[in-house]
Amino acid sequence: MAAEMVGSDMNRRQYLIGAGTGIGALPVVERISVATSHISIDIVEINTPLQGGDLLDMTAELENSGSTDKRVELDFIVGETPEVVGERTAPVEAGTTRTVDFLQFRTYPVRTDDTFPVRLETGADMAETMVTVAGVDPCDAQYVYPNRDQTLTVRPGTTVIFEVDAELVKQQGTTHWYVDGDYVTTPIGPWPVTYFSAVGRELFTHTFDSGGAYLVDTAVTADDGNAASRWELTVANDGAEPPTVDATQPSTSELAADETTTIELAVSSSAIELDRVVWWMTQSDVILAVSDISGTSDTASVQIDGGCHTCQIVAWVINENNMYTAVSPWQFEGFDEDGNEGDGKVSVRIQSTNSPVIGGEVLEVTASIENTGSSEVTRNVTLVIGDDPATVDSRTVTVPAGATERFTLTFETYPVAQDDSFPVRVVTEESADERTVTAHGTES
User: Mind listing the domains of the chain with CATH numbers?
Assistant: First the structure.
């Protein structure tokens, strides 16, 4: 569905499948039939009208009036310029009717009311209805960061943190984020949760790689009404640069795991005032401190009381426009500059998953261990899932010097009523990699 600019609005933008909250009573929608075979389709429930940013949720019925079982390919289509936003395969036994639910997509937080068609197609039949999305007013500017009333101009490759104050999130509910109209994510995983608890803000980070003009939107959704915010950015070669780290103390990359140490960064910014440094400890995924900094050059420090052997210190250096630079100059002793123990330089990577899966199906995570060292290594590898981490699979992998070994870890997902997205991590003693996966809600 092509984008259309209406003033500063962006109606009829792309919609993507997303997870949502519970849906209330849904009206019945009249079916439009063009059946040419024994398969017919009805839209029987849909939660229109709704507010921009809400999750649109439909339920359909497939009827097989023939004498043989069928597997029906169902396309979920949105917009006056039709765009397929979801696909589903559903088996329907001969002479029966089955329900297909959790047909969902996340709507865009439009500023003015918008109406557009949604359609389900099987190739043999089609059902269509119109959806109305009410416009959403901007939230109070005091709840969002950086300042949305100015257009940011940054250089290609710059990462910006967008934040919503915890007070608004607690009032309104859940944040959903969009870049140029495309639904990107709801923040999940241990770091957004930790940041929200420690700093008091929901965060979304995005790296702007290419030149041009961008819009970043957030919808904060709640049962009693939604709020929204929008930032306009320009990416150009003459844009502002993120902060830089000029020096570290101690200068060595190794820290003692069982000693108290003060670590320090000398930081600077070419034009925009500095704001803060967020000190993270990896693996345990905690914020050690947040240091205030100011001016165009400053020094930030924090005292740490040791740490685990798989931990590194990561510092986010942030300026007043929420442009930031992340550095990880230290790790705890016994590990080389890549965070690897001894002579074996080991790193783990998630290569692929079979996400999305239907709740109850087996999630497969294919990963690899690369050993760039000069001796063979053996590592215990675990699959950890969820915001409240749980280990669900493990295996031992031996990797010859200079080689890479691939392997697959699995987890039987839970049958869920609604779509659920959650993080999965493949972890070794000194390395880890993370992806977000989705389990679709089960069909009745």
Answer: 4-134 (2.60.40.10), 141-235 (2.60.40.10), 244-332 (2.60.40.10), 346-440 (2.60.40.10)
Residue 217 to residue 184: CA distance in whole angstroms: 10
**Amino acid identity, position 370:** E
Residues 6 or more apart from 397 whose CB is under 8 A from it?
369, 378, 379, 381, 405, 407
The tokens 């329900």 sit on which residue? Answer: 99
Rounded-to-integer distance, Cα 358 and Cα 416, Å: 9
Conformational region of residue 168, where left means phi above 0, alpha means psi within -120 to 50, and beta covers everything else? alpha
| Predicted pLDDT at 16 | 33
Q: Which residue has the tokens 């439909």?
A: 58
Output b/e per residue, 272-285; b: 16+ Cβ within 10 A: bebbbbbbbbbbee
**Cβ count near 90 (within 10 Å):** 16
Sign of CA dihedral 290, 292, 298, 303: negative
Structure tokens at 398: 């031996």
pTM over 0.90: no
Q: How far apart are CA 439 and CA 414, in angstroms?
A: 8
Strand 323-332 versus strand 254-255 pairing type: parallel
Q: What pLDDT does 150 receive?
A: 87
Specify the pLDDT at position 45: 95
Q: What's the rounded Cα separation, in Å, for the pair 131 and 117? A: 6
Residue 391, token pair as written in the block: 């280990």
**Distance (Å, rounded) from C-alpha 436 to C-alpha 423?**
4
Averaged over 196-216, what is the pLDDT?
Answer: 93
